[in-house]
Design a protein that fits this description.
25% of the residues are buried. The chain has 21 helices and 6 strands. The termini are far apart. By secondary structure, it is mainly alpha-helical. The strands form 3 sheets. Strands 1-2 form a two-stranded antiparallel sheet. It has a two-stranded antiparallel ribbon with strand order 3-4. A two-stranded antiparallel ribbon has the order 5-6.
Length: 528
């Protein structure tokens, strides 16, 4: 076997001897020329590209742009520094237009630069105003630049969290067609379930169903709009039912998981100076989507609702799967029957409303025309501008108009007695110091369920007066008087009352323009 090892060799060096001086002298440090770098500085330190952008943005914040021609601008990292002079002129002009509510076509890079300004706190004084500007930019340019969705929906969430805006994140969800990170959707769903379940939307609920509802033929062939309208109201109905039967609503019964906290990185992929609001923000949420009981409940509620809508609209086929308990399913079906019947009645009976003030104005104008045409004979002889036959024809047309409008007014106007009643009612309401509220007699008030008190708190004066009208001897006339007094229509008043009833007592209060029989005993002792 061959030996590859080598013997190590060492050399001695004497370090006691002085080395010879170099032939090339080392220059003094003060004599070395320094190269001048064009870097922005603040307090002696070099600014980062993000800080430099914010500094320039503040310098340009108040600058208005003069009209300039469009110049293309495409940059992976768009800032002022990569714009040439022509691009900057167009940008300032375009930004001025946007601030005036006009949104001319432009390249996406320009949109991003303005977005970065708003993200970094430039261009607004109130955080809500900054949010509104960001949202408008997104809405106005997302159709022309679909790639905006992936950025703006995340940045708007970050902006809301940073500035602690008291506003629903569902607004962002609806613009983004249903996409937001899971933890953000869980946070929003938990807020809605605890505070106001009627704010829930089909877009938000879609994540919690155990199948993709958009694959349904019914959903694609016109059912989407119907489901978007009825699902929030059905969820209110289910919550009220659970409160009455189990003394616990959806939130109390199903959402009992402990909150989780995570750190959310702010304004990813944006030119953002993290010394302004930090690099991350703490995010606390309850993992609603991981609760299997909640997912099963909302899925079964949706399946029951869609099957009933299919039946009412004559759509063949039904969804299969586990169903709700019979009592709850029956409640949902009865409610949808009422909603559908109300829509059918509204479609068959179109409401015609005559504006009395406009009608009176038309009468006065017609009378003025007639008087202007019936001039004195001597003036007619001097002017000689029209023949007798022409004047007679025009005058006859004017008289016909006055007669027609007068007859129309007689047909649709209130009777004199009703006019007087309306005037007395309006004066009484206007001069009364006591707010109009739905109140019960003291003997019965203490025995009322809490949900009726909640309903009374939600009703505004016109709703209370409408209920009083329905309890009167002549409900139709009284209801018309209330509607006239508040400049609305009876049907709209009743619909508003039913919407509030759905949110509080979990059922319709009025059906066929009358208080439903099962609740009439509650209103027998209402003060009027």
């Amino acid at each position: 076997m061959k030996d590859h090892s080598r013997q190590l060799e060492f050399m001695e060096i004497d370090l006691t001897e002085e080395p010879e001086a170099s032939a090339v002298p080392v220059p003094e440090r003060s004599t070395i020329p320094h190269r001048q770098f064009h870097s922005s500085r603040a307090g002696g330190s070099i600014l980062s590209s993000e800080k430099r952008f914010v500094e320039e943005a503040r310098q340009l914040e108040k600058m208005e742009g003069d009209p300039a021609p469009f110049v293309p601008f495409m940059s992976y990292w768009p800032t002022y520094g990569v714009m040439n002079e022509s691009q900057r002129e167009w940008y300032l002009y375009w930004r001025s237009e946007v601030k005036q509510g006009r949104f001319p076509d432009t390249d996406l890079s320009y949109v991003f630069v303005h977005t970065y300004e708003l993200i970094n706190g430039v261009g607004w004084r109130d955080p809500q105003a900054g949010f509104d500007q960001l949202k408008q930019l997104w809405i106005q340019y997302r159709a022309r630049n679909p790639q905006l969705d992936g950025y703006m929906q995340e940045w708007l969430v970050d902006y809301t969290l940073v500035h602690q805006l008291d506003m629903p994140l569902s607004e962002i969800l609806n613009i983004s067609s249903g996409y937001l990170p899971a933890e953000i959707q869980d946070m929003e769903m938990h807020r809605i379930l605890q505070n106001r379940i009627s704010d829930v939307s089909l877009n938000l609920l879609r994540r919690y169903y155990d199948y993709d509802i958009t694959l349904s033929k019914f959903y694609r062939d016109g059912g989407q709009g119907v489901l978007e309208e009825v699902i929030p109201k059905v969820m209110v109905l289910v919550d009220s039912y659970l409160l009455r039967t189990r003394q616990a609503g959806i939130a109390d019964q199903f959402i009992q998981d402990k909150p989780r906290t995570t750190e959310r990185v702010l304004f990813r992929k944006a030119v953002y100076d993290d010394t302004l609001y930090g690099k991350t923000v703490p995010l606390s949420y309850v993992p609603v989507g991981e609760n299997s009981d909640f997912v099963q409940l909302v899925t079964r509620v949706f399946r029951c609702t869609e099957n009933k809508c299919r039946e009412l609209l004559g759509f063949r086929g039904r969804l299969r799967g586990k169903t709700l308990e019979p009592e709850l399913a029956g409640l949902i079906e009865r409610y949808l029957d009422k909603v559908y019947a109300a829509k059918q009645d509204a479609a068959e009976k179109p409401i015609i409303r005559i504006d009395a003030e406009k009608l009176t104005a038309l009468q006065q104008e017609s009378e003025y025309v007639r008087q202007a045409l019936t001039i004195e004979e001597d003036v007619e002889q001097v002017q000689g501008a029209a023949s007798f036959e022409q004047q007679a024809a025009v005058e006859g047309e004017a008289n016909h108009t006055v007669k027609y409008m007068t007859e129309l007014y007689k047909d649709h106007a209130l009777e004199p007695e009703a006019d007087e009643a309306l005037a007395e009612r309006s004066e009484a309401v206007a001069t009364s110091d006591t707010p109009v509220r739905l109140q019960w007699e003291e003997a019965i008030a203490g025995e009322l369920a809490e949900e009726w008190t909640h309903l009374a708190d939600q009703l505004v004066p016109q709703h209370v007066l409408a209920i009083h009208a329905l309890l009167s001897e002549d409900p139709n006339t009284e209801l018309n008087l209330v509607a006239e007094q508040y400049g609305t229509m009876p049907a709209l008043l009743l619909d508003e009352i039913n919407d509030l009833a759905m949110e509080t007592i979990g059922d319709l209060l009025i059906d066929s323009d009358r208080i439903v029989s099962e609740y009439i005993n509650v209103f027998e002792h209402v003060k009027r």
